[in-house]
């Protein structure tokens, strides 16, 4: 005798609420794939001589502002001086990566090849480890086949390596944290108890201290988790409170430090005024205007040193907003251009006489394929498809109003890769079906 549906559903909800979601075991090929990926990345550093940093501008290209702050930390001056001169306490960059640079400088020397090798090697570790949550995301959303090929596509992808082996920056740590957050959000749909929420809050706190841009995804991500749990009959209020408390506990030491250093509240970093002006002032055309940066402009450096970074950032913000108020139409046009450049790739000088810049064309192709895969996943109502959509819609928004750069898309590359692999496997299935029908 069958059970009435209205009695079966509550039993299923109760059962699922009592069972922690299980992650699929990693395939055996990970035993050779991860070491191979890491070794290939190290080989690229050596073969391409990426450990030889540009000595010009007193080694400013070695980590840029983060490298300067790391030097100050290693010299015992604390988190300070993102440019030349002793300009005092700083919040010009989020704290995690400059502290990593400072620790490496302390152990292996300031601006030395050994420090470059260590920092780039750490980047390679983060990039390699990211293969694991990428596999789990692909498996949970699209199945084992997509998961396997996504793992291969990330671990053996020279485009992925190019960031970690070249940039002494958070270019591999931020993608790793964001990918872990994305997967944890998927897990929290069914995760009972409080541990998952605490982990979510802690991960987001760590991510914000590495790159606050990922906070743009937080509201959508949180609402998505709440809705999925609500549809499953699970409560979220206590978990949201735990995650929020954990998040602010992770941030609080840095926020307290900033208040003590500047005598006012500074949320993680204070360089937004300059970043905003670099994309919005006289001569703005939708791209970065690097000649306004203090490291490249002597007058701007003098203003930074004379005014201090808080006052300098506020003045840059005022200049940018004054320009926008005087040119609202122009601001709208270049914001649309920035949207296009973010997904198409920023135009670069080329010596080719061909009308098409194939470097940008490849960048655009991956964007188109990812969007196509996302639309297909939404039409098929794949689990988690709207979480992918939320990431694509929210994460890049700040760059549409500041300026775009190829590395700004990189934190989303793991999710974009999964969508591309999903699309390609679907195309392969369609072709196989047509062949069978013809036979």
TrEMBL record:
The Gene Ontology CC terms held by the record are:
plasma membrane
Q: Where are the transmembrane segments?
A: 29-48, 116-138, 158-185, 197-225, 237-256, 384-403
**What is an example of a GO molecular function annotated in this UniProt entry?**
pentosyltransferase activity
Kindly indicate whether the keyword Isomerase belongs to this entry.
Answer: no
UniProt keyword annotations, A-Z = Cell membrane, Glycosyltransferase, Membrane, Transferase, Transmembrane, Transmembrane helix
Record carries keyword Membrane: yes
Q: Which InterPro entries is this protein grouped with?
A: LipidA_mod_glycosyltrf_83, RgtA/B/C-like
Q: Which GO terms describe its biological process?
A: lipopolysaccharide biosynthetic process
Q: Name one Pfam family in it.
A: PMT_2
Per UniProt, residues of the Glycosyltransferase RgtA/B/C/D-like domain are 93-256
Specify the superkingdom. Answer: Bacteria
Bilayer topology: Multi-pass membrane protein
Name its cellular compartments: Cell membrane
**What protein does this entry describe?**
Glycosyltransferase RgtA/B/C/D-like domain-containing protein
The scientific name of the source species is Candidatus Sulfotelmatobacter kueseliae
């Amino acid at each position: 005798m069958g059970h009435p549906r209205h009695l079966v559903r509550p039993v299923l909800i109760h059962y699922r609420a009592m069972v922690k979601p299980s992650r699929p075991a990693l395939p055996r090929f990970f035993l050779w794939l991860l070491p191979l990926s890491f070794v290939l990345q190290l080989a690229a550093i050596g073969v391409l001589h990426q450990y030889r940093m540009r000595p010009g501008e007193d080694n400013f290209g070695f980590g840029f502002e983060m490298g300067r702050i790391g030097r100050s930390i290693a010299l015992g001056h604390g988190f300070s001086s993102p440019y030349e001169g002793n300009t005092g306490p700083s919040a010009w960059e989020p704290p995690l990566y400059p502290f990593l640079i400072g620790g490496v400088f302390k152990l292996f020397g300031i601006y030395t090849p050994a420090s470059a090798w260590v920092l780039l090697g750490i980047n390679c570790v983060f990039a390699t480890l990211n293969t694991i949550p990428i596999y789990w995301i692909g498996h949970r959303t699209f199945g084992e086949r997509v998961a396997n090929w996504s793992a291969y596509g990330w671990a053996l992808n020279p485009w992925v390596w190019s960031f970690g082996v070249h940039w002494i920056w958070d270019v591999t740590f931020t993608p790793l944290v964001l990918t872990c957050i994305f997967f944890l959000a998927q897990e929290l749909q069914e995760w009972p108890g409080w541990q998952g929420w605490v982990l979510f809050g802690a991960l987001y706190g760590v991510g914000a201290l590495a790159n606050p841009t990922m906070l743009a995804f937080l509201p959508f991500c949180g609402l998505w988790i709440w809705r999925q749990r609500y549809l499953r009959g699970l409560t979220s209020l206590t978990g949201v409170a735990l995650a929020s408390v954990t998040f602010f506990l992770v941030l609080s030491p840095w926020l307290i430090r900033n208040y003590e250093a500047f005598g006012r509240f500074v949320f993680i970093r204070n360089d937004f005024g300059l970043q905003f002006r670099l994309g919005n002032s006289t001569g703005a055309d939708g791209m970065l205007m690097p000649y306004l940066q203090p490291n490249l402009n002597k007058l701007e450096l003098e203003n930074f040193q004379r005014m201090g970074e808080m006052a300098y950032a506020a003045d840059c913000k005022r200049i940018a907003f004054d320009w926008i108020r005087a040119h609202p139409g122009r601001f709208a046009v270049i914001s649309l251009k920035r949207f296009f450049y973010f997904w198409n790739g920023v135009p670069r000088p080329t010596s080719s006489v061909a009308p098409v810049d194939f470097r940008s064309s490849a960048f655009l192709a991956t964007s188109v394929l990812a969007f196509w895969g996302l639309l297909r996943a939404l039409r098929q109502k794949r689990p988690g498809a709207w979480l992918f959509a939320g990431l694509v819609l929210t994460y890049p928004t700040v760059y549409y109003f500041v300026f775009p750069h190829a590395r700004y898309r990189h934190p989303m590359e793991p999710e974009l890769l999964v969508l591309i692999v999903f699309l390609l496997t679907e195309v392969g299935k369609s072709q196989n079906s047509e062949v069978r029908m013809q036979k």
